[in-house]
Amino acid sequence: MVNVGVLGATGMVGQRFIQLLDKHPDFEITALAASSRSAGKKYEDATTWYLDDAMPESVKDIVVSETDPSLISNDVDILFSSLPTENAAVVEPKFAEKFIVASNASAMRMEKDVPLVIPEVNHEFLDIIEIQQKNRGWDGFIVTNPNCSTIALTLTLKPIYDNYDINRVYVSTMQAVSGAGYNGVPSMAIVDNLVPFIGGEEEKMESETLHLLGILDGLEVKPAQFGLTASCHRVAVLDGHTESVFIELDQNVDIDDIKNDIANFKSLPQELDLYSAPKSPVIVKEEDNRPQPRMDRNADGGMAVTVGRLRKDPVFDNSFKYVLVGHNTIRGAAGASILNAELINRTIL
Amino acid sequence: MVNVGVLGATGMVGQRFIQLLDKHPDFEITALAASSRSAGKKYEDATTWYLDDAMPESVKDIVVSETDPSLISNDVDILFSSLPTENAAVVEPKFAEKFIVASNASAMRMEKDVPLVIPEVNHEFLDIIEIQQKNRGWDGFIVTNPNCSTIALTLTLKPIYDNYDINRVYVSTMQAVSGAGYNGVPSMAIVDNLVPFIGGEEEKMESETLHLLGILDGLEVKPAQFGLTASCHRVAVLDGHTESVFIELDQNVDIDDIKNDIANFKSLPQELDLYSAPKSPVIVKEEDNRPQPRMDRNADGGMAVTVGRLRKDPVFDNSFKYVLVGHNTIRGAAGASILNAELINRTIL
Amino acid sequence: MVNVGVLGATGMVGQRFIQLLDKHPDFEITALAASSRSAGKKYEDATTWYLDDAMPESVKDIVVSETDPSLISNDVDILFSSLPTENAAVVEPKFAEKFIVASNASAMRMEKDVPLVIPEVNHEFLDIIEIQQKNRGWDGFIVTNPNCSTIALTLTLKPIYDNYDINRVYVSTMQAVSGAGYNGVPSMAIVDNLVPFIGGEEEKMESETLHLLGILDGLEVKPAQFGLTASCHRVAVLDGHTESVFIELDQNVDIDDIKNDIANFKSLPQELDLYSAPKSPVIVKEEDNRPQPRMDRNADGGMAVTVGRLRKDPVFDNSFKYVLVGHNTIRGAAGASILNAELINRTIL
Amino acid sequence: MVNVGVLGATGMVGQRFIQLLDKHPDFEITALAASSRSAGKKYEDATTWYLDDAMPESVKDIVVSETDPSLISNDVDILFSSLPTENAAVVEPKFAEKFIVASNASAMRMEKDVPLVIPEVNHEFLDIIEIQQKNRGWDGFIVTNPNCSTIALTLTLKPIYDNYDINRVYVSTMQAVSGAGYNGVPSMAIVDNLVPFIGGEEEKMESETLHLLGILDGLEVKPAQFGLTASCHRVAVLDGHTESVFIELDQNVDIDDIKNDIANFKSLPQELDLYSAPKSPVIVKEEDNRPQPRMDRNADGGMAVTVGRLRKDPVFDNSFKYVLVGHNTIRGAAGASILNAELINRTIL
Q: Which residues of chain C have a CB within 8 Å of the CB of D197?
């Protein structure tokens, strides 16, 4: 068993880490860190538990520590981070001096020597770790996963990008309130309403997606070269981001071929049969009215993205449209970091 | 006063007609028709009233008749129709033999001799009425308004189309449940959820919008020539459709010019100061997080569409994006038919 | 394995039956019946599946039959019924001529020779079956479970009633929309709203609860003798009924004793370790803000009721108050019938 | 015109004050105070406006001051306070040295020399002001209104209490999220859920109601002597508290008499025809499924409470039940303080 810890353990994504790591065959939680308000208390007492499933017994008695590397035992190997961005920017590098940090924070994602990875999409970017350690003189390292809405979108784009030349992507999102944290969206803001703005989200989708589909040239990432524009909106859904996607290729579209490419897509995590890897990263639904967040967010434990309404565009040549749903705090956050760690554990450690 | 009636008077849109016509300076409701289940009863007894404002006193005692032209008094001039499509296809032509029918139904919209009109966009299409009456030998006629999501979109496109060459439009909608009628969307389908499908809606948006922005060539409509593709979704909002719009022009975009073009847009209904005409058909909001359906759907009595997040596309040349909100059962349905009737009353009768 | 079937198999509660019976150690679904619209189709094709978990593979290919005993194979032993009341009144007696019918319908509940049973509360009422078979000359029989809101309430009252003299109970419910069936509550009726009326619900709670807590005198039920009055309301919750309960005893209240009585309550299903029996029928929560339907409805697979805010009444003598949450379509419907069948299977068959 | 100001002007209830005072015939807003974060800014810039109706033009340019009496012009007569309780306890007495404070805060409500008033219920309690000024040596004074759920309940109890001997009241509430302030209830807490706890609410209802229905003995309040117990719950409704009420009288119940007593109830504000007074303080609905918060909260501008499902208790003697809806931030907060001020303005100033 690899000993692991969670930074930001009391928050929304922190709780998902704990839920997903419970009964994990390779990872065992032995450390939990949070703000000074929680430090010194048993996790059970420090935390208002938000998830529908009850808090795992195994973490209840762990005493929460401050978010300080010197307070984490040396027998911990991997720290999962769901720290707020500003905090992560300062703290994660300190932890990386001796620990592996698998981070869901956006702070370090676009640093040149920090791999931004979705295991099914660009596992080869893990090679960058080598430079990171050399550059920074660290014994540990940081690996990051993308933004929640980016992960779901990129998983569906990957099998298309592998088989066709993409010209343009237009994406309009309908995102769940959990993406803003437990207190992020007041009920007064969202009941009988939606909010057409999520700070920084469009920029992240527009840059991270191309980065993830890029190639390693030496140890530098050359982003993919098509255009992708996003409009992001918050809707009255608890969990599960929905995205409406329009794609133009450089060539004729055979919708059945594309459907097969997406449905049959598998990658390294599936080959290695990693514990958190979904059987298929993307599930294709034929029903007219799917995917729906409440019905499809938990597909394959919340780790599979569901695509539906895959249809030829009746208006634009070489174009098609679809709708996707992905669980934003599982596949789009905690589960993403854990899958990164499982891949590292199997291929690097 | 012009005597008017409402067909489909007990339904969702029928109730909006009644609400909006109450205290109207030029129109007085003297006839109400509905299905045989309601016929013979006083409107108050025949109707489960759905709107937040109470049922107007003036209609409570009107006895509902069957939907049959022979049962409507000859002193009625205009009939507003919110009949279901299949029903409208059969019944509206019979009424048009002697009455003016201002219809919100989709049945007759794309008939060559039936004008599909938004008064601010293509009032000149009313000229088609002449052929309709000649062709069909009717004393009355049918005028239609577009689909709810089309009206809101087209009102925002019109000032752009008048000033620039549009290449492409991508639109993704987040539509209110009232658009499906009172019983249309079960709560089990939409609480903590959304549904990425509305039957026929995308097709209507894709065809009706270009038709409305087209020109009359003789008395035939030549649709506008750009491409417009839509993806339509139902969200947990009671009233007010939200649409996320991406536009590519044939030329450079100066976002302030476009903002001014939209904000300053006025047309014939504003010049004629029609009773139901909003001061500005489209209101432009500067706040990051607007428009929102609950906050903006009632702008100018629900007859103005609100645009926000108008921004240059950071990715595509000659491109920009925005979000709009319009009230689907006021501007997008009953109010649209009434504004058509007001225009006809002022310019034709 | 006992072969079982489901009547009303395509509906909301029918689907819960199928979900809960999947992987059941003793029962295997071999027959599914529904309306003539579904008959002759494979279950997968006949059904719009509503539950978040996917349809079990094992039922997908079962061909749905009409709801007619002659079409059900003789090797089926138990039929679970989620038929609409009027339908159940006619059809269930026909099935009971040769099958065991474990019914969630209200039609036969108050018949003198039909046991209305919650296994933890009044399993001894199963003795009534004997008369039923004699009276009616049936080889099979009907056993019923109470209304959803009654089951949850009665499970919490039982350990109190066993230990104290109850004088009065006032209960005000906040019930989930699933209780009305998938199409029962339109979203227009419940978003940003609640509906203070559920037809027949208050009467069922007021009569069924006392019946369940009654005693068998010979083979006749003498209902419990205290007063219970209910007010029932529908709220914007998908699953899980919440009830606010005020109780007056005939004696002094020691709130800790009552808490212990409730928390320690176990009964025959727990002793027999029936497959669907929760470890404790009622879970007591200490947190101020629990139980909550979304957090507590799935306690012990949805078969345990959760009580919280158990507090001495500061105003009335000998009085206390609490709030309960129970899953209305699991513990309150399909799970209730299944637990009845498990008890019968173990003790009678 | 009387010059008035609002303390806590940027909050939820502060905004309601501003909305309701706009176009008031007797009161004109000339001062707005809020926290130091807002002070010095124009109201328009200091405030995130939450209400569906747009911010009134008349207040946009008023510069917000700190909450300090020395910063409020002497030509202001009345200050409406929606300060948080702890803050109100410190600050309101300072303002009362020279201003009239009409407060919605709970801080001073139960002080012996501070009148807690609903104009339709106990306007005579305003006589207490005299002692307050004498006791405290103030030129101004404080008058308070009760808690939102108490006001609605007490308005319905008053006509009953005036005509019958009440023995017991049991009330279970379903309260709107706006009662907790804009950020009070996260969407994660209430979508597909409810929360069965509102801190301090039950205690307020249990004490304030009896106080309001009490009598002045000399200048001391003798509370009403019946028992009232409450259980309070938060539901997914934006505005409008719903309360389920069970009442036992000391005598036989004729439900039509009670209905008439409630429906015909009028009091001093109606006689004086005060600007904010509803025509009838309580409206009685006959429909089975009313009152509903979204349909009834705005009755008579949000100042009337709506009662429905008034029915004889089928179980308990001398007992009946009903459901009420009242607008929590209009009749239950800002409108309550304004009606108090209107009464004072007409009868005392």
A: 288-289, 309
